[in-house]
Specification:
Helix content is about 20%, strand content about 25%. With about 450 residues, the protein is α+β, with helices and mostly antiparallel strands. It has two domains: about 5-15 and about 265-445, Sandwich (Immunoglobulin-like), CATH 2.60.40.2360; about 30-265, no CATH class. The strands form eight sheets. Strands 14, 16, 17, 18, 23 and 24 form a six-stranded mixed sheet that branches. The structure holds heme C (5 copies). One heme C binds next to helix 1, helix 5 and strand 12.
Length: about 450
């Protein structure tokens, strides 16, 4: 079939470097090609990991915060097998010289204490470093010097930083109010990711800066750390306390409560309008248009690791007996989309419409690895914006009659082929697919 899809709205390759963000990364080369940065990847340690307590130290008085955080991706940031596999590939690629790059946010304590440096091994890391983005990776932040690439200042000697102005006293720690904790910039310090080459990888904070949420004064915390009334510490007064599961897309331990929150977060965040003519002549191409809306106020859909996530439209046309006469965005035998990276059917779905992002290397070839990439193009949909995409469905072999067109906008955290390539077969088989929106329409072919 020689079908093609057209892009009707402003959906052409979008350079990811066009809004707020660094002009180039602030990295230095210490002479032998080792990548360093005075703040987040120091060549010589600036901190001692032993000065940072682990989360079990907090559990006696903050048991709910600890239990929530423990199922979050923050707790998983270093032990995540996908992360470890990718870092391992980069270790091989750069012979250890870039070992601080991918780890600077996943464990700032590990990198700044020197536990993580050229040639490090994950199995040798101390418990607080294994805890990744642990309690004190946030609650000892006294300043954010730049809203990307682990731009935080960490001071383990400072009072515990937090959102409470009148914290009850405790023998465990001093407390200090910091307005950073109600501010998106705290999150931006790690959530906007730039390669040492200056190539921007992730930028939810930069997107948020230009979003309706920013205008309304809703920071990341407003959607990702919702508040309930309750004590902030055992026996303490009732306050607004904030959920520490950091609900997003991923649920590393399969925790049922986090899963329910993921599904709630993904509800009513997108819409699809199908535009189909009432009738169309047999033999001519049937033009089907889907107008896809991002209803999130805070950032693009998708955001963050858009080069890993899959967001796509499944489009089916069925005759009145229910037989599918045209399909795009369906899965091949391995469970992968039938696009460029499909193991067995890379050209099987030339009309495939996706809204993620992708890397291109210096030779113009697609690559999965940011360290090999020289370009990052994105088809993500900005907040409260929409993109229209069209399919030209051939009808020359179809009979006259009534046909149903249906579209689903589908989101999957990881493509199975990538997980299998990294040795994560069980995770590949267990990947959920979330249907964010759908629409149906009827067309008369005559
Ligand atoms: C500037 C901080 C920062 C740097 C540097 C960084 N990451 Fe991340 N990483 C993040 C954040 C924040 C997320 C969460 C984004 C999301 O889920 O969309 C993340 C998510 C991930 C995930 C997905 C985890 C999951 O289970 O969903 C993987 C894998 C990962 N990073 C690997 C890497 C690799 C490999 C590198 C080096 C190329 C790297 N990271 C560099 C901050 C960083
Ligand atoms: C012995 C009990 C105890 C232990 C152990 C403890 N805390 Fe606290 N913490 C408290 C109390 C009490 C408060 C004040 C609560 C209030 O006023 O509602 C508090 C407040 C806080 C605040 C809010 C500070 C502010 O001003 O906003 C943070 C953040 C915090 N603790 C983090 C931690 C972390 C992280 C650990 C472990 C490294 C920890 N705490 C260990 C008792 C404790
Ligand atoms: C010290 C660095 C750091 C800070 C600060 C930080 N994050 Fe993260 N965050 C990460 C990393 C790294 C990951 C990915 C962990 C993984 O899965 O490997 C992540 C993951 C997440 C996820 C899960 C995304 C998904 O795909 O499920 C959410 C949601 C999130 N962070 C929200 C926040 C919010 C809100 C703030 C600010 C209050 C914040 N983060 C501050 C480093 C950070
Ligand atoms: C108005 C609510 C809202 C605000 C504000 C908001 N988010 Fe989100 N965020 C969402 C929703 C809904 C999703 C799920 C859709 C998705 O994954 O893109 C999400 C997903 C994410 C993810 C997971 C993306 C992925 O697919 O891997 C990350 C990371 C994230 N947000 C970070 C942030 C950061 C950082 C900020 C602040 C700079 C922020 N968010 C502000 C609603 C919000
Ligand atoms: C990714 C950063 C991050 C991590 C990791 C983190 N917190 Fe927090 N914490 C926050 C933010 C941000 C707030 C305030 C949210 C707001 O006011 O909107 C907060 C608030 C708190 C408070 C004040 C009460 C409340 O809920 O508002 C306590 C106590 C606390 N955290 C303890 C902990 C403990 C204990 C851990 C580890 C188990 C932890 N935090 C891990 C960012 C973090």
């Amino acid at each position: 079939m020689t079908l093609c899809w057209l892009v009707l709205a402003a959906c052409d390759s979008e350079d990811t470097g066009d809004t707020a963000g660094p002009d180039s990364a602030d990295t230095a080369d210490s002479g032998d090609g080792t990548v360093t940065d005075p703040l987040s990847m120091p060549a010589t340690p600036t901190l001692d990991a032993g000065d940072f307590p682990t989360s079990d130290t907090c559990a006696e008085c903050h048991p709910d915060h600890v239990a929530e955080w423990a199922v979050s991706t923050h707790a998983y940031a270093i032990v995540d097998p996908v992360f470890q596999a990718l870092v391992g590939l980069r270790q091989g690629h750069a012979d250890g010289r870039e070992d601080r790059v991918c780890t600077q946010c996943h464990s700032a304590i590990g990198v700044r204490s020197g536990e993580i440096g050229p040639g490090f091994s994950f199995s040798a890391l101390s418990p607080v470093v294994q805890e990744g983005v642990t309690c004190v990776a946030c609650h000892t932040v006294t300043d954010v010097q730049r809203p990307y690439n682990s731009g935080h200042v960490l001071d383990p000697g400072a009072p515990m930083q937090g959102p409470i102005a009148d914290a009850a006293s405790t023998t465990a720690h001093l407390s200090a109010y910091s307005d950073l904790f109600d501010d998106a910039e705290l999150c931006g310090g790690c959530h906007d990711v730039t390669e040492p080459t200056g190539l921007e990888l992730e930028r939810p904070y930069a997107e948020w800066l230009q979003s309706p949420s920013q205008a309304e004064g809703t920071p990341c915390q407003g959607c990702h750390m919702t508040s309930t009334r309750g004590p902030a510490a055992t026996g303490g007064p009732e306050r607004d306390r904030h959920d520490h599961r950091f609900v997003g897309l991923d649920n590393p331990t399969g925790d049922p409560e986090l899963q329910a929150r993921v599904e709630a977060l993904l509800t009513d965040i997108a819409a699809v309008d199908l535009i189909v003519p009432a009738s169309s002549p047999v033999g001519e191409r049937l033009v089907v248009t889907a107008d896809v809306h991002n209803l999130i106020d805070g950032h693009n859909l998708p955001t963050g690791s858009t080069f890993i996530r899959e967001l796509w439209v499944e489009l089916l046309v069925a005759d009145d007996a229910g037989t599918i006469v045209y399909a795009s965005g369906t899965l091949g035998v391995e469970g992968d989309l039938r696009g460029y990276w499909s193991p067995s059917d890379p050209y099987g779905d030339p009309d495939l419409v996706t809204f993620g992002s992708a890397f291109v290397d210096a030779w113009g070839e697609p690559t999965l690895f940011p360290w090999l990439a020289s370009e990052h193009w994105s088809a993500a949909i900005p907040p409260q914006y929409h993109r229209a995409v069209s399919w030209m469905v051939p009808t020359d072999t179809l009979a006259e009659g009534t046909y149903t067109v249906s579209a689903r906008l589908r989101l999957r955290p990881f493509p199975p082929f990538l997980l299998r390539a990294l040795g994560q077969n069980a995770a590949a088989d267990a990947q959920p697919i979330y249907d964010l929106a759908s629409a149906d329409a009827v067309v008369e072919l005559r």
